[in-house]
Design a protein that fits this description.
The chain has a five-stranded antiparallel sheet, with no helix packed on it. Strands 1-2 form a two-stranded antiparallel ribbon. It is mostly beta strands and 134 residues long.
Length: 134
């Protein structure tokens, strides 16, 4: 398992549904009912068409590595966790999520590599979405 810190989020009204679902290992994403854009990071207004018609749906929790880097020098709570991977994962539903790749040989990661969710429990009723290679 990962040695990364697991810091609890501070949900806003726009992100509460997302963070509440993480407690049940569910990845909820907002989707614009007007134009169909799947939105990341959760917000009340569609970034593409500016509609307020947002609905939530459960995503698969799978995707591919879009970009990644290995940090060899962490700061603050990450100081003792290095080396660790910071990545953009392109979800199968479309949006790219900034996250960590865990439970992986950091020398064998590749752009386009398939990944799946690996929830990290904050101990405060929420979980952080991180990813591991399939």
């Amino acid at each position: 398992m990962s040695s990364l810190p697991v810091l609890a989020p501070s949900p806003s009204p726009e992100t509460k549904a997302f963070w509440d679902a993480t407690a049940d290992d569910r990845l909820l994403l907002p989707k614009c009912s007007a134009c169909g854009t799947v939105i990341w990071y959760p917000r009340a207004i569609c970034p593409d068409c500016h509609s307020l018609e947002i609905e939530w749906f459960e995503a698969a929790g799978t995707g591919t590595i879009y970009s990644w880097t290995v940090s060899h020098r962490g700061e603050g709570p990450y100081r003792e966790a290095s080396p660790y991977c910071i990545a953009y994962v392109e979800l199968d539903e479309g949006p790219r999520v900034l996250t960590n790749i865990v439970d992986a040989d950091l020398t064998s990661l590749a752009i386009g590599q398939r990944v799946t969710l690996a929830w990290a429990d904050t101990g405060e009723g929420t979980k952080l979405p991180r990813f591991r290679p399939v």
